[in-house]
# Entry
Amino acid sequence: MGKGTFLRIILVMFLCVNLVGPPGLMAQGAKEEAAKEEGSSFRPEEIDQIVAPIALYPDSLLAQTLAASTYPLEIVQAGRFVQKNKDLKGEKLMQAAKDQEWDPSVKAMLEFPDVLLMMNEKLEWTEKLGNAFLSQQRDVMASVQRLRKKAQETGNLKTTKEQVVKVEKETQAIVIEPANPQVVYVPTYNPTVVYGAWPYPAYPPYPVYPPGYVAGAAFAFGVGVAVGAAWGGYGGWGCGWGNNEVNINANTNNNFTKNNYNNPQKYQNKQGGNNQNWQHNPEHRKGAKYPNQNTAQKYGQQRSGSGGRATTADARGYGSGTGQRGGGGPQTSDLSRGGGEKGGGKAQTSDLSRGGGKESAFGGSSKGGSERASSNRGSESRSSASRSSGASRSSGGGASRSSGGGSSRSSGGGGGGGRGR
# Structure
């Protein structure tokens, strides 16, 4: 046997051993993937990683931020609104936004513009926070308590002139409240410092630094935000630590919507004044994909395809439940890239932060590139159309459309169009 032949045999054997995994291991991997698609998507250490930047917020602001994060498209729209109205603050800013039909949790973030802009800028983190909260709400709330306990043990979480930190007798949960109910101070801290030694090296806290953070400071506060009767919204959201839930006070919510919407009846809670469990409103999700199949179905996504099996688009939030597919609906993954209204459809979410379209959440610095990319896609679409006898459509959602030279899309696959291009 020649030396060359021998070496080739050794190489083939090496590839066989290393490329073909043990059947048991492969089956386990498949099971884990199926479990993620069906239900829980985030491990406890991943949730801690995501929640760390806001776990030390006052309870009401924490609950409001969690609720608002489930509407990433509206976060971007509200962030743009703040950037366009930099001279307006507090009540004047709220009045200027009176005709905006955002979810109350998002509109109330206008009172905390720095936090809102942080969520807009760190959109990938905001989207993960919202997805974790939607699919594993109680796990997220439990994570907050774990992190608060760590910060308290390191001496970085305590009562000050800005906040009151106490422990509930019934639940032993750590509660954070403003020292003055009329003034809210947003804490600023570095998550890698304030919690002490981080136990998950593979999942370091997200580098999302709160507004006003000064490098090296373990824990500090920004400028206090006055939330008096004129605003009427702060306090509508709260934390129900007994069941690890977010609550909403119907009376406070109704007061807020009455003062801050042109059509408040649409947002009025008819059930009365006691605290109720917060409910996600898929209408304000606006086509943004859900984290897994169970969550998508929970909020109105329908199964489609042969045998009732959910398509990829349905499982990820672009099923017929949203009704906006195939180039017409906003898509969250496009939020961080920035294109505006393309292909005759609505603004794409990952396009909104990328800089193209009418406006850019980051000043439109990449607008030209987005327009050129859109033009190229339009040319390709027209060229493709000329080679075919016409647009082909199927009930499976695989329609190929060309609108005004816009991009050609298939809504039946590829993750429901929510992936970044």
User: Anything to note?
Assistant: The chain has two domains: 44-277, 287-357+407-421. Residues 287-357+407-421 form one domain. The radius of gyration is 24 Å.
